[in-house]
Amino acid sequence: MIDVQVPQLGESVTEGTITKWLVKEGDMVEKDQSIAEIATDKADSELPAPSRGRVVKLLASEGDVVPVRTVICQIDETATGSASSEASPHAASPNVTTKSAEPVPPSAETVPAKPLAAPSTRRAALEQGVDLRDVRGSGEHGRITRDDVMRAVNEAPARAEPAARAPLAGEAPRPIVSRGGDAAQVQQLLNQGGGFVPPIPGVGFGSFKLPAYREKPGDKVVPFTRRRRITADHMVYSKLVSPHVVTVAECDLYAASKLREANKDRYKKEGMSLTMLAFVTVAVARALRENPTMNARVLDDAYVVHKDINIGVAVDSPDGLVVPVVRRADELGIRGIVRSIDDVASRARSGKITIDDLSGATFSVSNPGLKGNLFGGAIINQPNVGILRVGEIKKRVVVVEGPNKEDQMAIHPVMYMALSYDHRVVDGVAANNFLWRVREILENADFEV
Description:
Strand content: 15-25%
Distance between the termini: 55 Å
Order of helices and strands: EEEEEEEEHHHHEEHEHHEEEEHEEEEH
Shape: globular
């Protein structure tokens, strides 16, 4: 008997949602045949069968959120023949329960080590000091929702909180106990945030509480999609843990634009699009190699400088913005970058992007498109320590040096670039050196096309 587990679905991904079973109990499957569709915060993927055999038991239902390495299916690799001739009379879909079916005892990995709840719900519980083991879930299959957590907070008996006093000289600060929580949980928040207990999205902070929404004629309530919710959680997390600093550079693209115009038709004949984004990505990759502190991630009490330079490039897709990764970008050059960006952008727009395509970025570049406006400070894509957002390209009057070293006015294409960086590990000097180098490479059109 083979236990089929939820695989590791990408860096930092800890769980997935079973959106659809592609087989039922009693079906014969071939090796590598897709048996389930699994969705995560990064992308949707299909789970292949590890071996040929018969599906004996489906241990999870559609809609279940299951941690990675959890057994969700069992396949008998010794079975032969067709499903119709050997299917068990008790075979049923995972959503149907039959009294005569004997339950298969799950392995230790089958039972999640924590209550069924989304990451955002777990964070809300931590912020409120609620133990999820004491909460009864009202969602599908007993899943605990954020409303369940807030209900548990409101139902908890009120406790008097002593007035805070300043610690005496030489005395360690007393741990703070949050409403409905214990000291250990809240102290964990303080240790992570340097003494800052964050506000609760949708609820408020301290004495400030959000007013209740009252529907008015013409209002349109748009529910969050799964991906939008997780994106929102990611952005809030990034702003809370990373002290964002933004620095902006003005870049004269006259030489780079001339180089692009001279070569874009040749690339087009080869089925590739020579865009300014490709020039920016190459410049960023080279600048990262020369300024490695920007190619890092933060650990609890240290940081890691990555060897490989993997650049996430934001592109649009039917399900919203995704950030596929161009791996070892500093080794590719213009042609390799163009081919890689074209490939991942095409698959993102067609919905064929994979988990691997979206995992492992060490730095990100955000391109807002033709209607990008002047510039903007992007939120860092965790666990990176920096992201470069480029603005729209506009013709402007600039001062250039004439043939006799005199100043002259000229009309050139100009773009602003905004670098957001994590000030925990990146100092201003390192960030400015990096951005200055990106601008220098672009302005000198230092590329081989």
